[in-house]
Amino acid sequence: MQNDVTNAISTFEDRQKPEARARDEALSTEMGNSLVELIGIDRKTARVPAVAKYR
User: What is the mean predicted confidence (pLDDT) over 10-16?
Assistant: First the structure.
């Protein structure tokens, strides 16, 4: 049980971040802006690693 409590405490912030982001996005669209406009940071796309070139 102690391990469950410790795990729940350590992952609390990670579980709250998506909810907070959704709440912030909803509030910003309600005000007529997008969250990206307000913060100025766009989500970065995942970059595909280059294929290794061997001779």
Answer: 87
